[in-house]
Design goal:
The chain contains 11 helices and 10 strands. With 360 residues, it is of the alpha+beta class. It folds into 2 domains: 82 residues; 251 residues, Bira Bifunctional Protein, Domain 2 (BirA Bifunctional Protein, domain 2, 2-Layer Sandwich). The protein has a 7-stranded mixed sheet with strand order 1-5-6-10-9-8-7, sandwiched between helices. A 3-stranded antiparallel sheet has the order 2-4-3. Helix 1 runs parallel beside helix 4. The chain starts with a helix and ends in a 5-residue tail after the last helix.
Length: 360
């Protein structure tokens, strides 16, 4: 008799048989046994629906359709499992080269700094490193920068500790007497290292001082509150402006190109006299004029000049016997020119699409 209980028993028997299927042939045999057109168990049950009443036929027919759908889904799922288990494993070609592993690279600014250091090291310069936190004496006073110089204003310099006003008693132990608390600040240039070096010994001097410096600048295309400089100092007997020009010309031609010209434009810096801004021939248009050089054919790379006698006097060097020159350049500025990058912020945003271009 066709009833719901019979369909439930058939469903359980099918599930038990399906779990025992291990080959495609076993699966086909089970399919024929249950769904075969001639001898299939479910097919035969459809043939008995005609002897049932209308209401009964509707109830049993619905259950029979659900059983058929359950059986078909089970057979298809088991077929997929058997095919996946019997699929051949892809063979490995042991002669192929291994996949390259992603590796890091030098940051373009670090690489630029090291390149500059190598050039000056070949010229016989000593590479100097020093503190990024400075005092007012080494950063300003000894460099002939008067108290009212704009660079010493809090709008330009990042002070960590402000000095007391001139003549004011410092608070604290009364036995210490009258004293002035020195200002401490984040250095605004690496020239402070030149003062520290000259304080320690007598000429001759031939040094460069690369490093990070800090100023109250807004972040834009060409400015950032923290950037890198390299400053040079040469002191000796009979050092002249010609030596300065020859040094910068040699650097420019090794850093850029053998055809690169340089130009000095008179300027003013408190710690050098005479002073000059240094320009190199534009590397994009080679002097014909373009947007990078603002149609002038020249691009400024830094400042330079002969060391002011007051600087020598501050560190105990006889300005009547010794002369010297100094110059400074921004490492970011040189990187912008060398790599044809038009926004200084690109070097600090850590965008791998840019940084990976400098991988070596």
């Amino acid at each position: 008799m066709l009833d719901i209980d019979a369909l439930t028993r058939l469903r359980d028997d099918f599930a038990d048989s399906l779990g025992k299927v291990s080959t495609a042939a076993d699966l086909q045999l089970l399919r024929d046994t249950v769904l075969g057109r001639k001898a299939g168990a479910i097919t035969a049950l459809y043939g008995t629906l005609g002897g049932l009443s209308t209401d009964r036929k509707r109830e049993v027919g619905r259950a029979l359709n659900e059983l058929k759908a359950f059986v078909e889904a089970g057979l298809d799922a088991r077929k997929t499992q058997l095919e996946a288990a019997s699929a051949p494993m892809p063979s490995a070609d042991l002669t192929l080269a291994p996949r390259p592993l992603p590796v890091g690279s030098r940051h373009p600014l670090n690489a630029m700094r090291e390149r500059i250091e190598r050039i000056f090291a070949r010229m016989g310069y000593e590479i100097l490193d020093g503190p990024e936190t400075e005092d007012d004496w080494h950063n300003f006073e000894a460099l002939n920068m008067p108290a009212d110089h704009p660079a010493r204003d809090t709008q330009d310099t990042l002070y960590l500790q402000q000095p007391f006003a001139q003549g004011t008693r410092a608070t604290g132990d009364a036995r210490s007497g009258v004293s002035l608390r020195p200002a401490t600040l984040l250095r605004t240039h690496t020239s402070a290292m030149q003062i520290r070096y000259m304080e320690r010994g007598a000429p001759p001097v031939r040094i460069i001082a690369p490093g990070r410096v800090y100023r109250r600048d807004n972040l834009d295309l060409t400015h950032t509150p923290m950037f890198q400089q390299v400053e040079a100092l040469v002191v000796g007997e009979d050092v002249t402006m010609a030596d300065l020009k020859g040094t910068l010309l040699g650097f420019a031609r090794e850093f850029f190109d053998q055809r690169t010209p340089i130009m000095f434009k008179p300027s003013f810096f408190p710690y050098t006299e005479p002073s000059a801004e240094v320009f190199v021939g534009c590397q994009s248009c080679f002097g014909s004029g373009c947007s990078m050089c603002k149609r002038t054919g020249w691009i400024e790379i830094g400042g330079s000049g002969m060391v002011h006698p007051s600087v020598f006097e501050a560190v105990g060097i006889d300005p009547e016997r010794y002369t010297g020159f100094a110059f400074g350049m921004g490492i970011e500025r040189l990187a912008l020119l060398a790599h044809r990058v038009d926004d200084i912020r690109a070097f600090y945003e850590n965008d791998l699409r840019l940084l990976e271009q400098f991988a070596s």
